[in-house]
Amino acid sequence: MLYQVWLFLWVCWYSIFNPWGSAIMSQQASILSQRNPPVAIRYEWVSYDQISDNLKKAVIASEDANFVSHGGIEWDAIEQAWRYNTAQSEKGRNKIRGGSTISQQLAKNLFLSNDRSYIRKGQELIITFMLETVMSKERILELYLNLAEWGTGIFGAQAASQHYHKTDASKLSQKQAAQLAVLLPNPRVYGANIGSRYVQSRTRTIQARMKSAKIPETQ
After folding, report:
1. Which of 44, 101, 179, 182 could form a disulfide with 158 if both were Cys (CB 3.0 to 4.6 A apart)?
2. Among residues 182, 138, 127, 130, which one has the least CA distance to residue 160?
3. pLDDT in tens, 129-182
4. Is-contact 181 214, C-beta < 8 A?
5. Tally: H helices and E strands in the chain
């Protein structure tokens, strides 16, 4: 119970103040520091209005189409992912499908890890409820875009925009934004192969979906 109170206090803090990092970022920094040569984390915070609407729409279109309307968790998506993963496991395949919303992904990135376990997933759901209770959708999306991993050692929209497109997050075109959104499910793999046929095909799909994507408005 004390741990949950501690987490809730941090959620309240982050609803007002910007984080200097995240649990996933710290985890990766420790791993990358042991490489020869070491790899430094690239991260720069930018405010919500300094991130292109194209990227906001692309990420929502790709990761969580109902972001502005749901309460943080889509139980149908979780059930579908569970059924799919169970079927894949029975067939001896390792391909995993996620059912996490942007709010759930933020909960994991900010406080937890990439480990897969029922305990970690349960804690993720609790934190997601806290985030949705305390924060606006705009703040949740702002935090997510700034903390998401976009490649080996690359965190946040600004670092990703600079690394892949040599521009600021505020100036991303629709195609550039869609391409960045493609990387999110597996950033270290897709980021190393951004010119691959899959990434290019998926970019076109997300671009088409962006037309109907709804983003939180600045309050």
Report:
1. 44
2. 182
3. 999 999 999 999 999 999 999 999 999 999 999 999 999 999 999 999 999 999
4. no
5. 11, 3
Phi and psi, residue 151, nearest 5°: 155, 175
State the residue for tokens 């999306």: 141
Question: Could you give the CA distance from residue 78 to residue 41 in angstroms, rounded to a whole number?
Answer: 32
> Which of 201, 198, 213, 203 lies closest to 180 in space, CA to CA?
203
Q: Closest by alpha carbon to 10, among 146, 154, 135?
A: 135
Can you give the pLDDT at residue 76? 73
Calpha distance 69→28 (Å, rounded): 32
Distance CA 211, CA 181 (A): 15
Q: DSSP letters along 162-211, please?
A: HHHHSS-GGG--HHHHHHHHHHTTSHHHHHTTTTSHHHHHHHHHHHHHHT
Task: For residue 183, give both structure tokens.
Answer: 């990387």
Phi (first) and psi of residue 42, to 5 degrees:
-105, 120
- Residue range 83-88: average pLDDT? 55
CA distance 179 to 55: 9
> Cα-flanking dihedrals φ and ψ of residue 149, to 5°?
-90, 130
